[in-house]
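To: structure subgroup
Subject: Chain for Friday's discussion

All,

I'm putting the inputs and outputs inline so they're searchable in the archive.
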Amino acid sequence: MRSFRALLLGAALVVLPFSARAQSDLIGKVDPFVGTDGGGVTGGNTVPGAGVPFGFVSLSPDTTNADTHGYDSKSPIMGFSYTHVSGTGGSGKYGNFRVTPAVGPLRVNHLHFGKTNERAAPGYYAVGLGNTDAERIEVELTASRRVGFQRLTYPAAAESQLIFDVSSVVAMRGRGQRVRLAKVQLIDDHTLSGEVTVEGGWNPAPYTLYFHAVTDRRAKAFGAWKAGQGWMETKPGVGASEGGVQVKSAANRQGLMIEYDTEQEFSNRLGAYLTFDTTSNQQVQMKLAVSFISADQARANLAEEMPSWDFDAVRKAAEGQWGDALAKIKVEGGSDEQQRIFYSALYRSHTMPHDLSGENVWWKSDEPHYEDFYTLWDTFRTLHPLLTVIQPQRQRDMLRSLIDTYKHTGWMPDSRIAGANGMTQGGSNGDILVADAVVKKLGGFDLHLAYEALKKNAEVDSDQPFLQGRVLKDYLKLGYVPFTQTRSASRTLEYAYDDYAIGVVAKAMGKTDDAKRYFARAGNWKNIWDDNLGCVRPRYPNGEWVENYSCTYEYPDRSGPWWDAVFYEGNSLQYSTYVPQDVAGLMAKTGGAKGFVAWLDHLFDGHYSQGNEPDILAPYLYIHAGRPDRTDEIARTLMAKHYKLSRTGLPGNDDAGAMSSWYVWNAIGLYPNAGQPYYYIASPLFTRSVVALEGGKTFVVSAPAASEANRYVTAAKLNGKAIDRAWITHDELAKGGVLELTMGDKPSAWAATFQAPPNGQ
C-alpha cells in the first residue's frame, strides 16, 4: 500500500500529509550510529544520542577515547552530557553537564563503564550501562530543543547514585577546552542548578552555560563534591559532618544551597550527587534544561518545553519532529540498504546549526538566533542549498541570524560557535549563502543589511583575520593572496568566488558598478593559475612562483599545522577545481572540452578526496564538457564506495551535515552549485523521489529503470517536455513538477552539447 497520495494539478504534484504510520516507517530507516566512529578518512564523528531537529540539547554518551563529538564505539562510557557538536574535526566544543548513573558507594573518579544492548533512533538513545550484571543500569535518553530527559532503571540496590559533573567538557584526549569557573547549587533533595564557564576548543573565546535539573523522586542523600586526580572532597546535604564540613540536618534540607567555585583551579572538577534506594522502586527519572542566559531561564525552559514526567510522550514528540523532517523527501526503489543510508543522511542534515532563539545572551534582538555555524565553510556547499529547498523557513531564519550577528558583532561569520565568531578556514562564505538566497528568490530577510555585511567582507581588512573577515591588503593590490600569508592559494580561490557571490547580489539589487567590480575580481583565480603545470600555484608578493612545487602534494605536511600551509587540507589539483563561477574559463585553461575531461580524469585517478569538501563539486564539472556520463559513473562510484550503513560509514568528518547532504542530493539525482540558480542532473539511486516544497507543491524525480547497472541518464523530460541539458533551474524546481529520467546501462548522446545555465551574472 502506498504511503502517500498525490493529485496531479497542472504541472505540480500536491501531496497530502504523511500519516503517522508512514513517518514511523521513515524513522525506522534511520541509524544514528552511521558515521559515529573515526573522523578524518575513516568515519564521520557524528553524535548517536538524543535530540530534535536543530535542537541545542544533544544528550549523548561520552566515552574515554572520544573525538570532538565525545563518542567512540570501542571505549567505555563515562556518562551522558547534554551538549555536543556533530561531525566536526579540529578541536572539540561543549560536552557540558555530564551525568553518570552508578551503583554502590559514592565515587566520582574513574567513572567508566562497559555497555550492552546499545541502540538509538531519532530522538532516542538507550544502553545497558555497567561492568557487571549486578550493577547494570538501563539508561534511556530523549530530548527537546533545550531540555534532556533521562529514564534510569537501576538494579535492586540500596545505594544507587546519580553523579553530576558540572565541570565536564569534551576532552579530546587532553586537548582543547578548559574550565574557568564552575558552580553547583543543591536546592533540595531532588533539584539542583549550576553553571560552567569554559574557554578553548575550536573557538578560544569563553562561554558560560547554565542548567536546572530535577528528579521525579527524592534522594535519600545528596550533596556536592570537588575532586582532582586521586582525591575527592564531599559536602553532604543530609546527615552528620563529613570531611570536616559542618552540614545542615535532614530536617532543614529544604532550601539548602551548596556552592563551590573552581575559578583558577583548572585541574579540579566539581559536581553533585543524589543517592537513591532502588531496592524496590528501581526507576529514577531526571530532566535537565540548559540556558546561556541564567539558571532561572533554564528552569523556565524546563517548565515550557517539558512539564510532563511521561518519558514515552516526550520521546513521541521528538519522533514527531523527526518524522516531519524526514517526510520532506520520500524515496522509492533502490535497495533497503540504500534507503537506510539515505534517511540516515537526511537525519544528519538536520543537526546543526543549533536553534538558540530565545537564548541570545550576547545582544538584545528579536531576530531568530542560531549558534554553532561550525563548518559554514563546508555547509554552504550542500547543506544550506538543501535547506533552501526542503526547510526554507529554517534557512530564512538562519540567514536572519547571520545578518543579525553582523549587525551586532561587525562581521558576518565564516564560522561561529558558543557566542563567538571564528575560526575561519578560507573565505567569507556567508556571502554565498546570501547569493544563493537571492538567486533562488528565498526572501524573508533584510537584503540591504546583508549587502552591507558582504561589502565589508570584500573591502575592509579584517581586524582579526583568524576569526572573521578576510586578509585584503595584498589581495586588493595584487589580485591574489601572496605566499607570505597563510593559506594563500586556497584563500585566493575562495575570495574570488566570494567576490562573485557579492557581484550576484549587487546585480540583483541594481548596483551595476559594484556588480561589475566584483565580477571582475571573481577572475582573480587566474592570477595564481600556472599554465605550465595545469593547476593553481602560490606566488610571492613580487609575482614570482613558489619553487619546488607539485600539483598533487598534500597539505599540511609535517613541517607545520593546518593554518600555515598554502592550502587548507588538500592539494592544488583538488583546489584547482574550485572555480564554480567560471567553469568555461577553467576549461579553456585545461585545453578545451577534451583537455578538461582528461584533466578531471587525472584528478579522479587517485587524487580526488571525498573525505574533504574543497573538490566535491568536481564530479559535476564533466557536464560542462558534454560528458554527463562521466558524472554519472563517478557519482555512483563515490556513493557506493564511501557511504555505508556502518559506524565508519562516512568518508570523513560529516562537518555538521555537509557530507550527509552531499549524499542526499546525489541519491535523488540532483546537485547544487551553491550561489547559482540551477542544479545539475546526475544518476539517481531511486526510481522515484518526491521532494516536498513550500506551499504544498512537490518536485518528483522519476527514474523507473534506475538500477545498479542502469546508471546512465540517456534522456530527460521536464513536465513531459524533452530537454537536452543536464541541469534544471531553481525556478523550474520551485514551481513543482516531474523530471523524468530515462536510464540505461550505456551512455547516450544526451546533453553532449553543453548549454550554459543561468548563473546570476
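Points worth raising on Friday:
Residues 488-508 form the longest helix (21 residues).
Residues 1-16, 239-256, 262-266 have pLDDT under 50 and may be disordered.

D.
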